[in-house]
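Troubleshooting entry. The earlier prediction with zinc ion gave an output that would not parse, so I re-checked the input for stray whitespace and re-submitted. Clean input:
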Amino acid sequence: MNFTKNSISSHRKTLNYLFYSIKQDELAKFKHLLKAAKQVVVLSGAGISAESGVPTFRGPDGLWRKLDPSMLANPASFRDDPGLVWEFYHYRRELVLRAKPNAGHIAVAEYEKRHAHDKLVTVITQNVDGLHTQAGTKNLIELHGNIFKTRCTKCNEVLENTDSPICPALAGTGSPKCDKLTSDIREKDLPHCKKPDCGGLLRPHVVWFGETIDFRLFEKFDVVISQCNVALVIGTSSIVYPAAAFPTILSASGSIVAEFNIEKQSPTSRKFDFYFQGPSAVTLPQALND
Ligand code: OAD
Ligand code: ZN
């Protein structure tokens, strides 16, 4: 047999897929419950986008120039050095612009589409990468906002923006390899509101540490969570609130909760009804095909 580099990598992929093939008896039980569900909630975190090449926050590539995201994604850092915070978001925007939804995002979107007439599927994501939308998910709550939206710090206008780069001064900046912890970019060269009577500095439309989630979403969560029959909790470390509390609240309000995570379940981790270990791009298509 003649192994080329590509064929070796494709064999390796197949082996990975076999390795992660989830336990069939558990899977059958889960699918049986899912089939009967009228309302399904999908709660996703950074892990669902890992196989699209977007680094998770608490994984090995989670640091940017030795800083963890909470040191950049907060209002005080933006006040002190908006250039540095914009460099970080510029880096992530460019990375995500090149990323494509993976089989996990697609399985979720196709499930919603197939069941448009017999189930209400709601996706609540902590991710700001827009990959659920790109995959075709319609009923989506972006809990932490979206990096392809800007918000004016003066007039609060929110606009979609996928420009690459978002402004000329950010071109070629934001490399995580460089170790500079201040930015040379002047504030006047960062993105600004185009309204003639405003001109305020723009910021990414994402929820930062120390900020609260739009209170109108909470009314929506109450309804969605209280009526949910089956919840899929995918690729989240469940550290950041309020999302971290959702699985427990869902379970307490009578929903079946199934976790999907690449990590082995630790003896101290939360125990819900199901735990499917493996990359979600492998486990979700198996769990959501009818
Ligand atoms: P984390 O980086 O904290 O956790 C990612 C989770 O995904 C971990 O539990 C991993 O084990 C799991 N994981 C990694 N690769 C996976 C794969 N291929 N398949 C399945 N699971 C995988 O990310 P989040 O929990 O999303 O907030 O982090 C929550 C929030 O913290 C983020 O939204 C962000 C961050 O700071 C803000 O920016 C406000
Ligand atoms: Zn403005």
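This one parsed fine. The longest helix spans residues 82-98.
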